[in-house]
Design a protein that fits this description.
This protein has five helices and four strands. The chain has 182 residues and is α+β, with helices and mostly antiparallel strands.
Length: 182
């Protein structure tokens, strides 16, 4: 008995006609070769009144080698920081916004001081938001319990850096509050 698949000889109802496909590809190669499928599709409608579906334009560009369907994201490599030799040598200060108390109260941040040698939490408390003054309070709490460390390590949170283009100037108003206080 012979298995027969029906419909193999018939073209899809949604298939783009060869003449239209060739014309669209010629326009894309001529005028929009450095555009992505979405912008190419928009320009085809705007300038040439060709209302081809975005998926069709994308498929044509991929088949012609004009578009790479999967952009490979480069993984950022972070260098691991070695643990310090002694407890208290370096303290890492960080905050973690989260719904710590579920539905019982508003979201808040947990600010902590973590020892760079042992990974122990040396001080911490909950705050409504991460601000310079809350980090100062965390520092006060830490210093009341422990001696002064050799260094503090913080992340690149907006509290600790100025994210403005003119920040390279050394005017006092461009420094962050922690830097001004030092």
């Amino acid at each position: 008995m012979k298995a027969v698949k029906l419909g193999l000889e018939n073209a899809s109802n949604n298939k783009v006609a060869k003449t239209l496909r060739d014309g669209v590809l010629a326009l894309i190669i001529k005028d929009y070769v450095d555009f992505g499928p979405k912008l190419s599709s928009e320009k085809l409608v705007e300038k040439h009144q060709l209302g081809l579906a975005l998926s069709s334009v994308r498929r044509l560009m991929i088949a012609e080698g004009l578009w790479n369907p999967t952009k490979v994201k480069r993984k950022r490599v972070f260098q691991l920081r070695e643990r310090r030799a002694m407890e208290g040598e370096m303290i890492q200060m960080d905050g973690s916004p989260h719904a710590w108390f579920e539905d019982r109260t508003n979201r808040c941040s947990l600010l902590v001081c973590i020892d760079g040698a042992t990974g122990k939490i040396m001080a911490g408390y909950f705050v409504s938001s991460e601000t310079t003054w809350e980090y100062f309070e965390l520092l006060r709490i830490y210093l009341q319990k422990h001696e002064r460390p050799l260094s503090f390590y913080t992340d690149k949170h907006g509290v600790f850096r100025v994210n403005r283009p003119d920040a390279l100037k050394c005017n006092s108003y461009l420094l962050t509050s922690p830097k001004r206080s030092i």
